[in-house]
Amino acid sequence: MKSRWISFLVPFLAVMVSLLIAAVIILAIGENPLKAYGAMIRGAVGSRLSWADNITKMTSLLLTGLAVGFGFRAGVFNIGAEGQMAMGGIMAVTVGLSLGNVPSAIAIPLTIVAGMAGGAFWASIAGWLKAKTGAHEVISTIMLNWIAYHITNYLVAGPFAVGAGVPKSPEISQSAQLPSLLTVQASSIPSSILLAIVAAIVIYIILEKTTTGYEVKAVGFNPYAAEYGGISISKNIVLTMAISGALAGLAGALEVMSVHHRIFGAFTSDRGFDGITIALIGQNNPIGIIFAAFLISSLRSGSNAMQTIGVPDDIIVVIQGIIIYFVAADRIIRTWIIKASQLGKKKSPKLLQGGEEE
Amino acid sequence: MNWFEAIFTAFASPLFYKLTILSALPLIFAGIGGVYSEITGVTNIALEGIMKLGAFIGVAFTFITGNPWLGLLLGMLGGLILSFLHAYVSIEWSANQIVSATALILIAQGFTGFLMRPIFGQEGQTDFVSKIPTVKIEAVQNIPFIGEIFGEISSFFYIAIVVIIGSWFLLYKTPLGLRMRSVGENPRAADTLGVNVKAIRYFGVLMSGILAALGGMYLALGDIGQFQEQMPAGKGFIALAAMILGNWNPIGTMWAALLFGAAEAMNIQLQTLMVLPSEIKALLNLLPFVLTLIVVGGFVGRTRAPAADGVPYEKE
């Protein structure tokens, strides 16, 4: 079997196995897993409204998945997409609020750039700490997530506060809001999905066709060899984090510009963490990540429908956890694949050593 | 009351010191748990998830059986099982330990959320259950100042003392401790000398699961008597920072945890002593996280991780 096939099969089998285990768990609380999954599929792709919901969710998931995946390629575990997305949203609101009568042609790009800069800055703090002091990016990005969360709460309860009820910011000016791509009755598909797909293609080109991409991958593959080859590790770590954060920041900005038009506490709703699952399923490949984002957004939109027939939607988080577990333990799945292929023909492919291929 | 007065009043009151110790307890348990795992060479950033699952299981079984001690025992078992998943793929399959631990955090979060409704019929938080009782010592209560801190205090305080001293003794005064440290520094050399690297690593990771679960259960069964979905709110990661600042040593981890506990206690005290608008409260909540960032950023002295920390070991 070709190694390309294996790298597709590992996440595929991980998803299948986790759905199976989740089915057993659903059975254990006395519900019918077939009914639950049926409701999930209908909720995800069963109607025009569910498609609209699905694609709206997919936009930010695609971008946080790209953010985490890009970091992975450079050997950086950016677990902070959540906080970077929040900072992107905050910056987009800050700029979007003050634009008044500026025409959309200027207002929209300005707001987007502000969001990307916010995310890039936030991620760079962790990148800088890692490069300068060796601080592990996992702990520092988690802390930055919490700090961003509390900053958002501070802003919507203080300087930005508007109206009664849930603490929230005012709406950004009309000219900075992104139009819908398609509106049919209550369902509308945001145009931001196009920007997210463009971002995926741009990241693909950066990774595969540019010197920057080569350096990023070289550092991720073997930092010592890369440094010996004249590539600055610390410069690359900060740069990687900045690009990664810019993508998560873009997710926050687009969420503000096309969905809520404002921020409130926890408006990122764990999509930064979902990015980790998506990057791992997509094998850190931008094109793979597009499909992985669609899978996870389908699970997420479908889980709401599952909830209505009595299966708590947290089962989706369990499924994501099990998927990640098996991707981490990809050797287990590789061994299964080898055993399965040996049942067919009496050959012994040297797949076990393929742990680090590509 | 102004800021200066409030801070001074806090420092002068026994309550501040009591709150410092109590806030440090979950960090002490989880942080020392981290020491066990990392000293044998397996990173375990899933402490947060283990704390959460431990707290939930502890509360769920206390709810079902009515006995918090039984809940505590089963919560520890839950932490053991969850950490076994991490140990198995890290030790047997050379899995990426950061990725595996991330999976555990999600699995713990998903399971607690998923089981909330079937068991308690509601989401967000569970019913109140019986807490682990406090320990009252009359003789201590009569001492001025000290008595107000230690006179009546959570049983977890005494469990923590046993854990701190016991762990220090185990790691630095017994052959097992020596083996654990050698496996974390140089597994190949330890292997050559006949140390069972795998078994030692399993022991380290499983201990981290038991202790992190204890830390989570202090929050649920020792402090408020219920489980809340947003628990432990980053404390698992702050515990990792305490472990780093404590230089992968149980006693050092305890001091670092007390430092974080003091920041938390000051936050609580200021919010009760002063009338603060909600946005200022939100900013005060930042303190422990900023402190952690400064600590892991290495601005508070250099520390050194075990050499083989996070590196899978395979026999040739």
UniProtKB/TrEMBL annotation, chain A:
Q: Which GO terms describe its cellular component?
A: plasma membrane
Keywords in UniProt for this one? Cell membrane, Membrane, Transmembrane, Transmembrane helix
Mostly located where? membrane
A GO MF term: transmembrane transporter activity
- Spans through the membrane: 7-30, 58-76, 83-100, 106-129, 141-162, 182-207, 237-256, 276-296
Q: How does it sit in the membrane?
A: Multi-pass membrane protein
Q: Matching Pfam families, A to Z?
A: BPD_transp_2
Which InterPro entries is this protein grouped with?
A: ABC_transp_permease (IPR001851)
Instruction: Please state where this protein is localized.
Output: Cell membrane
Q: Which domain of life is it from?
A: Bacteria
Q: What name is this protein filed under? A: Sugar ABC transporter permease
Q: Which organism is it from?
A: Petrotoga sibirica DSM 13575
Recall the taxonomic lineage recorded for the source organism: Bacteria, Thermotogati, Thermotogota, Thermotogae, Petrotogales
Automatic annotation (TrEMBL), chain B:
Broad class of where this protein is predominantly found: membrane
InterPro entries, per the entry: ABC_transp_permease
Q: Name where it's found.
A: Cell membrane
Q: Which UniProt keywords apply?
A: Cell membrane, Membrane, Transmembrane, Transmembrane helix
Gene Ontology cellular component list = plasma membrane
Q: How does it sit in the membrane?
A: Multi-pass membrane protein
Report the superkingdom from the record: Bacteria
Q: Name one GO molecular function term.
A: transmembrane transporter activity
Residues that span the membrane, as ranges: 15-36, 45-64, 70-91, 98-120, 153-172, 202-221, 236-261, 282-301
A single Pfam family it belongs to is BPD_transp_2
Q: Which PANTHER family match?
A: GUANOSINE ABC TRANSPORTER PERMEASE PROTEIN NUPQ, SUGAR ABC TRANSPORTER INTEGRAL MEMBRANE PROTEIN-RELATED
Q: What is this protein called?
A: Nucleoside ABC transporter membrane protein
